[in-house]
Design goal:
The chain has 4 helices and no strands. The chain is an all-alpha fold. The chain is flat.
């Protein structure tokens, strides 16, 4: 039961965070090197010990969870930065990348025109903001 609650909460979080991009997909975006902590975050795999949970998920749910895992690991790395400003910006980049991933999943699997248009708006806005934050990191981050 604990596992079901944990994954239900994780899925709810994933659905409130992910998004899509036009020319560049989330998978092609690189989390900035300045945001990485050097720690091995692969051990933070949210699906470990899932007791076959992935077998019960739809393709849409699997894609959403995959995007959330990537976002979660990147946010954890970014927040490990000692400089509060850099940690904030790195965490927000990861968060925005998650929004793009969620939107990409909506564009691929969704069928509601309003939801798809909203997903595209999110991709456009978040892509621009990621570029601005990455530019700030390149100029200001120590």
């Amino acid at each position: 039961m604990k596992t079901l609650v944990k994954y239900s909460l994780a899925a709810a979080g994933a659905l409130s965070i992910l998004a899509i991009m036009p020319a560049t997909s989330f998978a092609e975006m690189a989390y900035p090197e300045k945001c990485k902590s050097g720690m091995d975050m692969s051990k933070m795999d949210m699906m470990s010990g899932d007791m076959g949970m992935a077998d019960m998920m739809t393709d849409y749910q699997k894609a959403s969870m995959e995007g959330m895992k990537s976002m979660h690991m990147n946010m954890m790395q970014g927040m490990m930065k000692k400089d509060a400003d850099v940690a904030f910006v790195c965490g927000m980049i990861a968060h925005h990348m998650g929004a793009i991933s969620m939107s990409e999943v909506e564009l691929k699997y969704g069928d509601n025109e309003w939801a798809k248009k909203t997903a595209q708006k999110i991709i456009d806005a978040q892509t621009k903001e990621i570029a601005e934050m990455t530019e700030w990191l390149d100029k200001e981050a120590k």
